Amino acid sequence: MSKITPSLWFDNNLEEAMDFYVSVFPDARIHGVTRYGETGPGKPGSVMTGDFEIMGQRFNAINGGPEFKFSEAVSFIIDCKDQAEVDYYWTKLTSDGGADSYCGWVKDKFGLSWQIIPQALYRTVTGSDPAGAQRATEAMLKMRKLIVADLEKAYAGQ
Known about the structure:
Strand order of the largest sheet: 1-4-3-2
GO biological process, one term: methylation
Keywords: Methyltransferase, Transferase, Ubiquinone
Order of helices and strands: EHEEEEHEEEHHH
Shape: elongated
GO molecular function: methyltransferase activity
CATH superfamily of the largest domain: 2,3-Dihydroxybiphenyl 1,2-Dioxygenase, domain 1
Protein name: 3-demethylubiquinone-9 3-methyltransferase
Domain PhnB-like: 3-117
């Protein structure tokens, strides 16, 4: 178990967020929640904190209210083995209020930023051929969703 656990601040929609992540990530699970009691400050019975896991990474979260928002200053990288995984996560995380951006970045409907990165990106932009790596990097910078075949073609000079 990691000694560092990211803690996320949600605006009173933590339970919805945990259910969403469990539906998106096949191996995700909720470990537990604590609920507000009669003394508040939240509505009695509503979720105060939650502990969940995605792809082996544990998260803790709180329903803290609207004071703080997520930003791109913190994002989570999803290491995808192939284009099918890229497509799956891209579709799931941008659906129902999410948004795409450049270079494989998306925001989910809660405003949390994700980088959906195929393993081919690492092979191409850091490959042993400097000219190929430059071409792959230039191709990547023009993409929103990363396309494995296009990265590989750019690296190969096609």
